[in-house]
Amino acid sequence: EVQLVESGGGLVQPGGSLRLSCAASGFALSDHNMNWVRQAPGKGLEWVAYISRTATTIYYADSVKGRFTISRDNAKNSLYLQMNSLRDEDTALYYCARLTGWTGDYWGQGTLVAVSS
Amino acid sequence: EIVLTQSPGTLSLSPGETATLSCRASQTVTNNYLVWYQQKPGQAPRLLIDDASRRAAGIPDRFSGSGSGTDFTLTISRLEPEDFAVYYCHQCAHSPWTFGQGTRVEVK
Question: Which class for A90: exposed (0-12), middle (13-18), buried (19 or more C-beta within 10 A)?
Answer without folding.
Answer: buried
